Amino acid sequence: MYIFQSREITKDFVKRAETNGFEALVLTIDFALFGLRHINLRNQFRPPPNVQSILLNKYKDSNTIKNFIDFSDPDADWSYITWLKSITKLPIVVKGVLTAEDAIAAADAGASAIIVSNHGARQLDSLPSTIEALPEVVKAVGRRIEVYMDGGIRDGTDVYKALGLGARMVFIGRPALWGLTHDGEKGVKKILEILKKELDNAMGITGCSKLTDINQDRVVHESYYARL
Q: Who contacts 85 (Cβ-Cβ below 8 Å, separation ≥6)?
């Protein structure tokens, strides 16, 4: 979910999620404005005109559609999470956290978990990679809430590093899309199998018999050896 200007749309989405058995809401907070995506500008990328979101069907003949198109609310603050908690019993996962300050603020506002994410590095140039930001965020919230991570996961060793630096779980995007493009659902399953095999291999080589054996002592920054 995004932080919509129209709270009626948010309420509708929450109701849909609850009705369809969703177990949590993921709220993306790093989309206050649409980023200047230079690669899209250079490539003259435009969304295909025949692609429509089924989420818009209810509003296509309503003025609410304008609020959806201009959906992000740049004036929103952490009280939005408090409001969202007041209309649902589903746990709220806050996505788009890169700093200790935001991690603490999300926890204070009532988030059940956070996702360290930089929106695929598409929103703003020069943002830190998520694996670089992860340790700071984990240290800031401790055991108060769970910390997840997305971005940059390309093989099983990347999963290993993220778990070692404190992530409870990782999300993948591009690899799943590559598998989908290659062979549909079977391709996605194959990607997941490859990642699992690579993670199992990394665990075996480093002497980890279970996921909880992977800890910060087993991961060093690439600059470590340059300083020796």
A: 92, 110
- Measured distance CA(202)–CA(159) in Å, rounded: 10
Residue closest to 146 by CA, chosen among 17, 26, 21: 26
Give every CB contact of residue 195 below 8 A, 6+ residues apart in sequence: 153, 155, 156, 159, 172, 175
Query: What's the mean pLDDT in 61-70?
Result: 51
Q: Is 221 a catalytic residue?
A: no
Tell me the torsion sign for CA atoms 142, 206, 222, 130: negative
- Look up the pTM and report it: 0.84
Q: Which one of 38, 119, 182, 221 is the catalytic residue?
A: 119
147: phi then psi, degrees, rounded to nearest 5: -120, 130
* DSSP code for 178: H
CA 224 from chain centre, in angstroms, equals 28
Compute the average pLDDT of residues 133-150.
96
Model pLDDT for residues 28-50, shown as the tens digit of each residue = 988 766 666 777 778 787 777 77
